[in-house]
Design a protein that fits this description.
This protein is α+β, with helices and mostly antiparallel strands. It contains four helices and seven strands. A seven-stranded mixed sheet has the order 1-2-3-4-5-7-6. A hairpin with a 5-residue loop joins strand 2 and strand 3. The chain starts with a strand and ends in a 6-residue tail after the last strand. The relative contact order is 0.16.
Length: 163
Amino acid sequence: MDIIQFDQSTFSHVQRIYGEGIATGIATFETQIPDWSSWDNSHMKIGRIAVTNDADHMLGWASLSAVSNRCVYGGVAEVSVYVGADSRAKGVGKMLLHELIKISEANNIWTLQAGIFKENIASLKLHKTCGFREIGYREKVGQLNGVWKDNVLLERRSKVVGV
């Protein structure tokens, strides 16, 4: 498995995996797969990574989003990690999240955040394994298909940046 940077030319693979995440009903509040322009405008330019296998098949992807445009939050980013349905429970998510941590610290990001549905046990476990801690939750923060969902809030504070 290799980690690559993805861009518009490989975004169709990102969309496929994102669609598989949407289909689970526990990965995102989104119900539609975004086009490149919308996705590109809402994510940071750093940390757009994917894991591919020897056949150049994308197994999963991860990215960073700014949490605020206020300068005081310039070192805080939200993580997104999506693993293809046929690649789950094979270490792909862990590989992606570890690489995002390295990239974030190399770019002066001191805090990573994640908001995860409480039903998404695998994602919660992955983030905690990679050094995130639960800091709270938002009760009934939004509806997905008419059902109120809680969002567990996690964060990882760097031990090398902003100390």
